[in-house]
Write a structure and sequence with these properties.
By secondary structure, the protein is of the alpha/beta class. Helices cover 38% and strands 18% of the residues. It has an eight-stranded parallel barrel, surrounded by four helices.
Length: 269
């Protein structure tokens, strides 16, 4: 009898864990069926002498009638600029955090030795002229996300075309869920257990398996297309959310990504 009771208790415990797992990974109710275009140029259509996240890269994407994925972050004087890294070293050759200098100071630096500078978000929107945008909101660990989310939202209101937001930071996604639930929001992730990116094991585990969905209930999931996890697999199978692949480089990877994803964030080889 004791053995039977123990098995019942163990079974109930496993059932409760399963219910909790499903509750945590659940995305938003299905209100978003897909992006207006299937292809989004990662940081603009760059390469061949055109730097990423430059006005030239966005103009090229616009001419090709492509959607774009871009990154926004703050300067020290709270100007929204389109730049991926938190430091200028890789693209501008100087070891300076973006959020430590003003926009006027930032204008002194060029991207990869070209004539292109770091653009304001407003300049990029004017260049894209209505092409669909996936806007990744960048924030530093522990940073209050209110200001940057509000700043992005102001620009979204003035943009007369499709724009959604995404972020690795679940508190950014949560901010839009609470304050502007009408905005389409996406949770970015990858298998952080393979590449920790400085995360502690628990955070890497939670991010990898999308337990963070409980915070922002995203409308779509943007996952590194070469990765998978039990949480992401079950989220797809149970809830069938819209999924975007990042970042497919070249035709071969794009063909692989099309098997599982409704939208592809891509780069040319």
């Amino acid at each position: 009898m004791l053995g039977t009771n123990a098995m019942i208790i163990a079974g109930l415990f496993i059932l409760l864990l399963g219910i909790l797992f499903i509750y945590l990974i659940k995305p938003n109710v299905k209100r978003f069926t897909g992006f207006p275009v299937p292809m989004f140029a990662h940081r603009g259509l760059h390469g061949k002498g055109i730097p990423e996240n430059s006005l030239a890269a966005f103009a090229r994407a616009r001419e090709s009638e492509l959607g774009v994925e871009l990154d926004v972050r703050f300067t020290s004087d709270k100007k929204l600029v389109v730049f991926h890294d938190d430091n200028l070293k890789r693209l501008c050759g100087v070891d300076i955090p973006v959020e430590s200098i003003t926009y006027e100071e930032l204008k002194n630096y060029r991207l990869l030795g070209t004539d292109e500078g770091v653009p304001l978000f407003e300049e990029v929107l004017n260049t894209l002229k209505g092409m669909p945008i996936i806007c990744e909101i960048k924030s530093l660990p522990g940073e209050n996300v209110n200001e940057i989310c509000e700043a992005v939202l102001r620009h979204m209101k003035a943009y007369n075309s499709f724009m959604c937001i995404e972020s690795f930071n679940p508190f950014v996604v949560q901010w839009f869920s609470k304050n502007r639930p009408d905005v389409i929001r996406g949770q970015l992730s990858m298998n952080f257990l393979k590449e920790r990116e400085g995360l502690a094991f628990v955070k890497a585990f939670v991010m990898t398996h999308l337990f963070i969905n409980v915070l922002g209930r995203p409308d779509f999931i943007a996952y590194r297309f070469t990765d998978d996890s039990a949480g992401f697999y079950l989220c797809r199978k149970i809830f069938n959310p819209v999924c975007a692949a990042w970042t497919a480089r070249g035709e071969k990877q794009q063909e692989q990504a099309r098997l599982k994803y409704k939208a592809i964030i891509f780069e040319q080889e």
